[in-house]
């Protein structure tokens, strides 16, 4: 801005994002392939592309599901957190996981998604069985199509 005119914000162009309201310019999405990883969650105008080294859709070992390692568990968290879940269902999902009564979630959808992702990551770091809890919560919140996507993508049958 100038002393005479406020800064005018506009949406970031395709391929760029801004995770905050600020005068900072939009940042380009990261390129997962250049890092030797795969795209787990495509970026949008509000958040960066999320990459993973988890081999999605196939096991990392012959032992079973792809969630044997930390990167795969984080990939599952990111994948669920950034699904296009209706705002009310997203709040409900968080209430189920927090074992808390209904309360008002503050902020817009992007803020609630970020808070939800941080909460799940915190659960994972506390050595919680976050995968089981998340699948249970998706079912309890009646988000069956997302539960199915998760089971298919991360080989959880």
From TrEMBL:
Q: Which gene encodes it?
A: Tnfrsf6b
Does the entry feature the keyword Zinc-finger, yes or no? no
Please verify whether the record's keywords include Cytoplasm. Answer: no
Q: Which biological process terms from the Gene Ontology are attached to this UniProt entry?
A: apoptotic process
Under the heading PANTHER family, the entry gives: TUMOR NECROSIS FACTOR RECEPTOR SUPERFAMILY MEMBER, TUMOR NECROSIS FACTOR RECEPTOR SUPERFAMILY MEMBER 6B
Which organism does this record belong to? Ceuthmochares aereus
| Record-given protein name | TNF6B factor
Keywords of this protein's UniProt record, alphabetized? Apoptosis, Disulfide bond, Glycoprotein, Repeat, Signal
């Amino acid at each position: 801005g100038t002393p005479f005119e406020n800064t005018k914000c506009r949406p970031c162009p395709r391929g760029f994002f801004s995770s905050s309201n600020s005068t900072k310019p939009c940042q380009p999405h990261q390129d997962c392939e250049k890092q030797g990883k795969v795209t787990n969650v495509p970026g949008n105008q509000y958040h960066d592309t999320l990459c993973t080294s988890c081999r999605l859709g196939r096991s990392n070992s012959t032992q079973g599901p792809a969630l044997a390692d930390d990167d795969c568990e984080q990939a599952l968290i990111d994948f669920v957190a950034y699904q296009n879940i209706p705002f009310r269902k997203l709040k409900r999902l968080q209430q189920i996981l927090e074992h808390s009564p209904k309360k008002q979630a503050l902020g817009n959808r992007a803020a609630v998604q970020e808070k939800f992702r941080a909460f799940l990551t915190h659960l994972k770091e506390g050595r919680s069985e976050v995968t089981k809890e998340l699948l249970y919560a998706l079912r309890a919140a009646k988000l069956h199509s997302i539960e199915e996507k998760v089971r298919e993508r991360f080989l959880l049958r």
